[in-house]
Amino acid sequence: MPSITRDQVKVPVDVSPEMRETYIDNYMKATRETGRLMLFACDQKVEHLNKDFYGDGIDIADCEPEHLFKIASQGVCGVMAGQRGLIAQYAADYPEINYLVKMNSKTNLVKTAQEDPYSPQLYGLDSVLAMRDAGVNIVGLGYTIYLGSEYEATMMAEAGDLIAQAHAEGLLVVLWIYPRGKAVTAEKDPDLIAGAAGVALCLGADFVKVNPPKPEGEDGRTPAEALAIASKASGRTGLVCAGGSTVDAETFLTQLYDQIHVGGACGNATGRNIHQRSLDEAVRLTRAISAITLADYSAADALAVFNGEKEFSL
Questions:
Q1: Of 27, 99, 146, 178, which is the active-site residue?
Q2: Is 27 a catalytic residue?
Q3: What pTM value is reported for the model?
């Protein structure tokens, strides 16, 4: 099982000296003292509206927002990501969860053909710090950048400023970076994904969430092999992959294992694949995912955890 000690945490120099120990505390919490991130992404209520929470193939439990908090509380996660208001409504009942506040969001109603994507910052850092001061266990912030959008400069500037402010307060930052817009012809092009990873590093992010690359034509590489280039490009910014739409557990766990052990990913960022299931199944999947991400289980052993044939806990 991978593990790190406090003195092994690479603290960026833009973390203010008086908040250095707080940053290390938050890093150790978010990575469960492994250096790897198991991020439970719960920001889709804005991003995808209700289609990710109710409909064919989605357990009826997912229609109730508290389902997300029950999963994060009963399962094994590093951090739960969601918008400030969502967290504010439920955090008092789930104080044990490590929270990451998603600072910007947009719906999927306006398509690229109508306008290039721009996801504005929805609230200031002060409102998040006020929640932390009130006792909410906030360890970090999240922000989405659509690289290639005509608004990319605005989003990059917002993100860069936010990272500097967050680090000064001892908070981690995870950037969601997706190439998207009329200038982008292949959103999962391996070179673009590697480029997005490098942008996250240059902006100072602690982790970056990207889509798994999709090699085209005669490239000859698997997605995990292509991901290895992006992982190198991200340097000390840990790279994790978006989980995407729901697939069967064996497929998902096999892909995740390859992303980490072939692609060099530093964890995972999973939403729909977890929360669209019943509470029992979702909790078991968080344990299986964490078995791979945080404890280096094989895909087969992690599947046994999901199926209840093998135990896993931290």
A1: 178
A2: no
A3: 0.97
